[in-house]
Structure formats: structure tokens, C-alpha cells
Amino acid sequence: MTKPILVAGVGNIFLGDDAFGVEVANRLMGRPFPPHVKVADFGIRGLHLAYDMMDNGYGLVILVDTVSQGDEPGTITVMEIDPTSDGEQPPDAHDMDPANVLALLADLGGQIDRLLLVGCEPAVLDEGIGLSDRLEAVVDEAVRVVEELIVEETSAFAGKES
Known about the structure:
Elements: E1 5-10, H1 20-29, E2 37-43, H2 46-56, E3 60-66, E4 76-81, H3 98-107, E5 114-120, H4 133-136, H5 139-161
Parallel strand pairs: 1-2, 1-3, 3-5
Antiparallel strand pairs: 4-5
């Protein structure tokens, strides 16, 4: 049986480009996925995300968020994060820090097998609703990246079952 996969869009819709993960998740929710794939908009609800991860035994969690690394705005990056690491985590543009969510998950006795971050370099994180033109232009690219990651993970798992 294929392990469940969670795609979690995170971000604050009131801080411009920080809504990127939420927008990607909303577009993905309209797409057909196998029953083992859940797509959700978690916004800034880190506690809710930690409990969802604990309760559902995900084999893979894909976080979609903005990540400031000094790249050109709109640059999409995929990072693998060690879900058991207490070490350095990628920078986060809002209060729902992935390291805090993982620490809470561990405190609750939960675990996940694999964690990926599909991050996008923001252009504007000021108060306001709506993505900048730069990030709006790459939302569909991020959707494709997430879809490819799901296919790769599902294919890899199916190969292990054989």
C-alpha cells in the first residue's frame, strides 16, 4: 500500500508574496490526485499542520512556501529537509517556521519519513493581499514541480513494493 502524501501550502495571505504556498495549494486542489494524496491550505496554522502530520502517518510531506535565500524573485527551489534534524532549517518569512512544526511533531510523538520544501523567492512581503507579478507568473510552474514530485514518490514507492 502506498504511504500517504501531504502537500501543504503555507503562508500569510495578508503579506503579499507570502501567500505563494496558499495559492499553489489552491490551484492543486482542483487537480485529480490518487486517494493517498492530500492537498491542503494550512495558511499560518502550524499547530494544525503538526497535528495533521502526526495523525496521518505521511510518507512524504511537501511544504510549499516562500523562502528567502537572496535569489532572483520568482526562483523556485526544491529542498529536502531532514525531518529528524534539530539543525539549521531554511529561512521562513512568517511565524510558521518548519523547524518549529517539526519540533512540535516530535514532541507529540509523531514522525514523517520525508520532507520536501518547494520554495519560491519572494519579491514583496509587505502588508497587502495578492501576489506580485513575478510570483503570479511562476505559480503554475510550482504546481508542475509539485505534481512531478508526487509522481516520482508514488513511482518510487510502487517500485519498492514489487
